UniProtKB/TrEMBL annotation:
Keyword Transferase assigned: no
Catalytic reaction(s) noted: NAD(+) + (deoxyribonucleotide)n-3'-hydroxyl + 5'-phospho-(deoxyribonucleotide)m = (deoxyribonucleotide)n+m + AMP + beta-nicotinamide D-nucleotide
InterPro entries referenced in this protein's UniProt entry, alphabetically: BRCT_dom, BRCT_dom_sf, DisA/LigA_HHH, DNA_ligase, DNAligase_adenylation, DNAligase_N, NA-bd_OB-fold, NAD_DNA_ligase_OB
Protein's UniProt name: DNA ligase
Listed cofactors: Mg(2+); Mn(2+)
Coiled coil: 27-54
GO cellular component, one term: cytosol
Gene Ontology biological process terms in this record: DNA repair; DNA replication
Naturally occurring in which organism (per UniProt): Paenibacillus antarcticus
Gene that produces this protein: ligA
Amino acid sequence: MNVKEQIENLRSQVKYHNEKYYDLDQQEITDYEYDQLSNELKKLEAQYPEINSSDSPTKKVGGAVKRELRKVRHDVPVISLQDAFTKDEIYAFVEKVKSQIPNPKFVVELKIDGLSVLIRYREGKLVEGITRGNGEEGESVYENLLEIKSIPETIPTALPYVEVRGEVYMSNEAFEKIMQNQQEIGGKTYKTARNLAAGSLRQLDPYIVRERNLDIFVFNLEISEGREFASHAESFEWLNSLGFPVVPDYEICSNADEVWESISAIGEKRWKLPFGIDGAVVKVDNLDDRRVLGSTSKVPRWAIAFKYPPEQKETVVEDIKVQVGRTGRLAPLAILTPVKLAGTTVSKASLHNQDYIDAKDIRIGDTVVIQKAGDIIPEVIRSVPEKRPTNAIKYMIPDTCPICNSPTVRDDNGADTRCGGNECLAQLIRGITYFASKVAMDIEGFGPSSVDSLMSEGYIKNIADIYHLKEYRDVLIEKGIVGREKSVDNLLNAIDKSKENDLDQLITGFGIKNVGKQTARALTSNFADIDEINNATYDQLIMLPDFGETVANSVLNFFSLNSTGALIDKLKKAGVNTKSKVSDKSKDDRFTGKTFVITGTLPNLKRDEAARLIQMHGGKVSGSVSKKTSFVLAGEEAGSKLTKAEDLGVKIIDEEEFNKMVQ
């Protein structure tokens, strides 16, 4: 991979994780891992300025703004902090400040892991609350902030205008209670308390905020018209006197040694805190000194955030077991001596496949080093051979399935081992769960526990049986298999609603090996219905976008099975849609060789609908604007992509013009 490709790959990854974190509240990796990606991108962009781009995520703060909530401009731009990962970087920061400021003081405080908000007061009354958004503009969450008990609605001050900045968070205890309840009812689960707190605060229903017991720590006084302060610590004392919960246990330090000692102390206690943190913040205390130091366009020169590396601990592999996935894949799982890691007790960790076990030489009885990938998922980093007992046992994935005793088969040119049986219960349960998941048919409330219960009771044996559950409504309510009357009716309504889904969701739900959502869309953009897909030839499939030999053969093999034909017949009889809503038999491939970028909110078409129309007519859809872009299809709030298109001279079209091109 050359440097340009490496930079583009990093930009793509950073943009993806920005959207997950800021816009969707679905953080997938740790801040530490994200910062490693971002810093690598910054270094490469600095080394190769000729590859720089105004559209790079390093040129922006935060994420895009959701359109469902009212937008509000910030009085003061909300910029990020410079990150540090080593002791040397902290010492360098302190020394740089000391070279410009005589005898500076520093405040070291916890970096709360939540959603940043700006809260405005006029004449002592709470009048507005805004999320960080993109740094220039955020979303109004005023009504939701009123439901957070620790935020005062009035403050004892006659100042005309006060603005404070804080971090809305959820305590570990509240998070665990909600997750336990969500699992019991088969509802949506979140990976972290931060994700749930952010998702809750941005709901349109304030009742959800009240129900989920969100809290806040204020960490900065942004504006105080009519009153000035000499230091950050002094402003903290004033905010505390007004009734604001300020960040606890902050310390004032005079030199680099004291700063590092404070950072280290926070690191030692971070997993014992009743709430999550994602680092420590070092700030120059004197506010006049801050003005002297100033800021760059992206970060203040008077503050830095230290990010802790993932916590690692040793434990013992007591046993290795295998689980069978929806595609029949046998996934080895290490059973560990329970150990407290990153705030929770860990007793299991995935070992992925036989190659992974062999490469790390992991044996039953071994002492191993573990950490949480993304501070979430436990993983084994390495074994410790010098602590290996004499009776340690090498592990091999079994040659028969532990569920149905069918022979197992190693993938051709792959690392995975799979069950060769067609009636394996474990595969069926996970296959039906995937079919109902959001990525496929999106049947709300039909989670793993409901699928397991209904299969165990014999009400469903395959995905077609889902659409006959309404025949057992009264029995299901009586037995309470998936909950009480309301839960049963909600599930049955969600199942009925899913019948109208587009064909690509059904194809995705089948769980065909090597066929995901994009591949399913390619199929349904080029074939009118499931029968045409069923009758497609290799030559037809291999010509589709992103189709290779492996994918084409996977589709052919799936539709050649007698069981697939029987399943499709049952789904048709149940009223499930099997026709493509975007396929056009009269298409003329007029967009062949053309690349589109879709940006903003279109008046009528959804983005994925527009993308399907483009792909159906032979065109490609890209996520970023470049000189190779043929058209930018722009709607309202188009943003930076529209600006870049104008700079590059790329033709910009609206939905009306696009429809004319299609028609």
